[in-house]
Fold these 4 entries.
Entry 1:
Amino acid sequence: MNVAVLTRRDMAAAPINRLLKWLAVADVFVMLEYVPFSIYKYLVLPEKLDFPYSWAIYLLFHMHFAQILHTASICLTLSLAIWRYIAIKYSDRSHILCTERRCSIAILTSFILPPILCIPTFMVFDIHTKNITAVNGRPGYIAYHVDSDSQGRLYQVNFWVHAVLIKLLPCSILTVISVWLIRALYSANQHQKNLRNYSACPAAEKMVKRQHKADKRTDRTTKMLLAVLLLFLVTELPQGILGLMSGLLGWCFFKRCYDLFGEIMDFLALLNGAINFILYCSMSRQFRQTFRQLLLQRHFARFLPPNPSHSESHNQNTCTEKIKR
């Protein structure tokens, strides 16, 4: 629904909505890819108790695909925060700094950078085999599973890159920007109070009302983005801390602790993508209006007669002219 609304002509005009659109696209692909993974892991696998090679290949693809798109989502969220910071901090030059071209560069970079950052993960994780002995009359078989190499410098480099560059560094930047945005909102509220006091003068009342309307629209956008950033921090910061500790404490901590909380962190990341739609609806009037129009168009389209084609309407007009003659 986010993608459907944000691609409408009214919404797609603003560069910040383009960033939100591609953030929604990345989240949608991650969630869609999790559907077959969850069906097989939680419904099929417990019944079969089998670990075929095809499942191991898919698991490896799932891990890399989800990480690349999730990293792209992180880059887009970071771009979103920086974009809003520039738009408010340098409002007099925002039309020069926040251009369509720079928005396109930010989106393109957000999708090119993740595969490069994930190269250590591609090299560390691989398909391993394990011989399962016969139990209770069931014949033995070879189980294929995805695991990391527990030794070597590359293993540590992978966790440092994942924890510091992909998780903790963006979280630190977002924390600083979020604090600044909160302060900017507080200053805006104080400014609005001063304007209300100033509006006691009748001559300035119209100008003050216009300014007050613009400020309220800016504040709503800032509050919405602030909620997106804070939700992102809640879901990503624990992963960064656990990843950093896995790099420091080694393979044993990774297997005992990181793997233990892996499913919870995956669920939080998926929940983050789903909650964004509720945030947009609750905090953006334009988003709600566009969403309402989209629903009404789809609901009432089946009751409306089809629009005649150009040739049909031309023939209709010709027939009408002949009858008149």
Note: The domain at 2-296 is CATH 1.20.1070.10 (Rhopdopsin 7-helix transmembrane proteins).
Entry 2:
Amino acid sequence: MSYYVKTNLEAVFQRGQILAPLLETSRLRDEAFGKFWLQFSSLREDSIQSAQPAADQPTPPTQGEIQGSSDLIPPILAQASGLVLDVGPGTGTQMPLLRSPAIKAIYGAEPCHGLHEELRARANANGLGEKYHILPCSVAGSQLNPVLQKNGLDRTDRGVFDTIVCVRVLCSVPDMQQTVNELYALLRPGGRLLIVEHVVNPWRTAKGSVVARALQTLYGALGWSFYVGDCCLNRDTEKALRTAGEWESVDIDRWFGRTVMPYISGVLVKKA
């Protein structure tokens, strides 16, 4: 919320856009979120840059080794290969984990144009300048399909990508089930969907928390989604993933079940 307030004040007093808070709410909200995400992702840079290179195939982490959600990302992204779709990469925090020679090309679908400059800079800094292609759109079919065609990637019944990466992004897509269904269709047979996502607290199970679930509801009522880039705290992402289509295998782990931001991480392999 502080980023949103500061952005509105800057618009009025520094840029002289007196009516912007009333007439350009959407633009200012996007600008504020861009600033928030730059700071949010940079706070997690150390854990990602200190991780093993993607080609080293690190062993899965244990509960005792996991200190935060960023620790879940390296062993998952290490499994990326072939043609990769990076869904909502933001500022490209996970870029150091996508340098494996097994990856042929990466297409990052990022609708927030305010993040593109930082995303491109990180791609260049990690030697991925020619391999990483920024798509200025969301992964909704109506936006993504035309952009893919412009980049010479025609969608077919056999899919397009060998790997699709979803890291902290499915919480904010407008229609999660439809989005996941479309991602499934974009995967080639045998392709992998790599996920690290925060989800609704499993409060009905022994691993969940009634208090944490209540706090998720409270934060939502106080405007969490508006101030944090349409992020939703109450999505059953695992259920949406499992019902998206036929999977050869589903390997999903749950983490931080007693908190307001429990996570799932894992790999889903599309049936060949």
Note: The chain has two domains: 2-38, 44-270.
Entry 3:
Amino acid sequence: MFDTRHLGVPKDNIGIFLRDQAAAGDTVLDMDPGPQGDGQDLEGLEVIDTSTAQKINSPDAIALSELKSQVMQNPKALAALQGHLDSLVGQRSGYIESLPKVVKRRIKALKNYQVKHTQLEAKFYEEVHSLECKYAKLYDGLYDKRREVVNGVVEPTDSDCEWESSDDEEEEEEDEDMEEGKKEVNALAGELKGKAKVTDGEEEESPPGIPGFWMTIFKNVDILGEMVQDHDEPILSHLNDIRVKFHEGPQMGFTLEFFFTANDYFTNTVLNKSYQMKAEPDESDPFSFEGPEIIGSQGCEIDWKKNKNVTVKVIKKKQKHKGRGTTRLVTKTVQTDSFFNFFNPPKAPEEEVDGEIEEDEETEALLSADFEIGHLIRERIIPRAVLYFTGEAIEDDEYEEEAEEDDQEGEEGDEEDDNDPDFEPGKDGQKPPECNQQ
């Protein structure tokens, strides 16, 4: 049941409300209840004029109590009132407009303070970017070591490999169980176990580095995995590193670099993608500022080898001449899905129409996805690559998403409790939470 208090109409006084509306000359609703629970919408709802409404208040009309009962039981009337309530959502209450001029003057001062706060916030983000540039150079040494190990250039030292994990503990327990089992089995079983057991450096396959490192990461991350097509995988098997370079100077931004070994598809050894960012408030709308945002991106030209471009496909179509009846074969090149379209992003519109930049929905969606992917690679994939390879970072991200959803559900539940007139926190053994003084 909806609550008419949002209209300033107490539920118990709905009849008086309708009577006053009629007396004021406003249009009211015919309160014919119709079949109960028929689930009908507003179609067929009869609207009566003021003269008819006046009859409702005549001595011969039904009592107000009966009218009130009909209103609360009529699904059409309830739907109409609920629709009116919905139309009020997001509308200003008029409170600010009703304030005295002297108070409005003070509000203007607060807004000016807010603009200055936003300007300071922009300077804060500029300094954060400077710190990112500084620490990026410190990270490079670690990224160099990671690249060398992944690609089998060097073998990590024993001290580098000291790492205890739950998997290692399980393997140690299994080894202990096997040792105890050896004492209980006969010599033949022990010999078979000895052959089955793989020892370090004996008959164990030893591929260089960590095979499929970046490809596995791409497949583990949904948004990247969706971009990778079957025809992309042979090329991505040659991807041996991804790096980020921050732009120093007045123009904030960063460049993603994808390094490839020699392959049969293109001659480039590095494919790059640059992102431009803005960290200052918009003069026309300073209160919308929420920190740095990506405003554009630029890819690079891929030097594809002959007939190896996986971003396009050739369609062959037969055309028949209407008069002579002869046919000819026509070829047409069209773009196809591929991860490597990432290096050819859509251009952000620059032309203004009526003072505003027009942007179609499809382009806007593509740009938004492109910016999201660039930010993800910079902020998550590159710094935590090994955790996305093992899947641990994926689990952490899922836990974070679940926690956010739980928080939202909790807030919605609290709102429902607050709107429930019968809700009393102190009843049924529910104790209000105590404030813990720190």
Note: The longest strand covers residues 270-278.
Entry 4:
Amino acid sequence: MPRQLSVKNRAAKQNSVPGRLLSGADAAFLYLERPEIPLHIACVSIFESEIPFEEFIASIDSKLHLIPRYRQIAVAPPFDIGYPTWEWYPQFDIRQHVFRVRLEPPGSEAQLEALAGRILTQVMDRSRPLWDIHVVEGLKGGRGALIPRVHHALADGVSGAALLKIILDPTPDGSRAIRKPRFRPPKPNPADRSLAGALTNAFRSTVENLLASEACLLNMAQGLFAGRMQGSLEGLMELLPELAASVERLPFNKPCTGERRFCWTEFSFGEVQIIKRALGTTVNDVFLSVLGRAIARYVRLHGEPVAGRFVRVVCPFSLRSDDQRESLGNQISFFPVALPLDIEDPIAMLKAVAKRTQIMKSAGAAQLLSLTAAWLGSAPPPLQALFWRTIPSLPLPVPLLNIICTNVPGSPTPLYSVGKRMLASYPQVPTGHELGIGCAAQTYDGKVFFGLTADSHAAPDFKRMRDFIHASFSELCRATGLRKKKKSRPVDPSRPGPSSSIRAAVA
């Protein structure tokens, strides 16, 4: 069987008869969302040439049977008595989800970034299935782009990347192998939307979450008594002062308006792997160390000190097994880590990050957050809905965290859309409340693609962060000998240079 058929058949099997009931995590993204906190995930994918619009629509239409959620809407029960359910949308029209956009000449990447920001600002219409794709034409050099969005209630980062692999093809002629079955949406059953049905679902979900929290607690206790966590707990005590300190607001931790901006950068995944192997760290450690150094530069740019300060980063990670990668919904936990801002040496910074992440992993920090989420999920659904809707309105004296950074593995081999090769794919992570900047990384075809999302009010100069990420990675490559070190040049006083604040930030 050809590889493209096996991949898509596996996806069809995962998504052919999905459960109707949203999980507590899925529903939370619906409850949290508001105009200033749009909660969809997306990417900007650039292709070698323009994508023929009608052919693209035909290609997507031929694959909709692989993704039943793309024909369904989330329907809430009366009084939030239970979790929402996915229901078939009988008026589905693919042309209400796939849009054609043309950039004005010259079609620069800066124009594409601006367009992406405008699209990412828009809150999705919940009266329709929660996805859309913008087909972008007019990009400089004859290239084309896709900007697919999907609501976070429907997919997390890993399943979002899997969705991208489904709507794209592993070969230039991959879409020809797909045979579209005839689709007939089932007739709605009034009993499925009854109050009694919602109460039954709520009771079942509560019991399942109680059992999950007990299992998680038992697993942590077994690890503690078996001694697996003993050394890590000692290391955790070493980090206790910085973990116990209150989270400080950084320059981009300001109230968000929902008006988004987006930019990106990229570098070699091969260089990341060489650094990882040479220093005995992980790929995520490399990303976090680069981000930490970039944030330190950004903080100095705003005239603030970095001595003794930390940035609290939360990293979502997948709980899926290998055979669940194509399944939809949210199966994630969160990994917290405090990165020091005052370490100047890039190698020392990477080692400090690796030490902290290893301690937090071994001490079960992610399991503790999963346990907390399971406990919250065991509360009655109406209380959960009230909790998540209230959280963004609470005036917190300090932020719970500074930034979210997610790392999603993409395809190691090229992907295509109607025969056009994808050259780059820049991921997006939601921002909102007081998280003015979000960072997402994705590996694809030998490169690492960084996407930075920002709120226009909280971080109007967020593109400097993109510059600082690029500079910090180059600095790490030079420190490890991957690249030649820059030779110092005498300063020509007759030539204008950057302001003192910018020079200090880049130093």
Note: The CA atoms of residues 11 and 86 lie 18 Å apart.
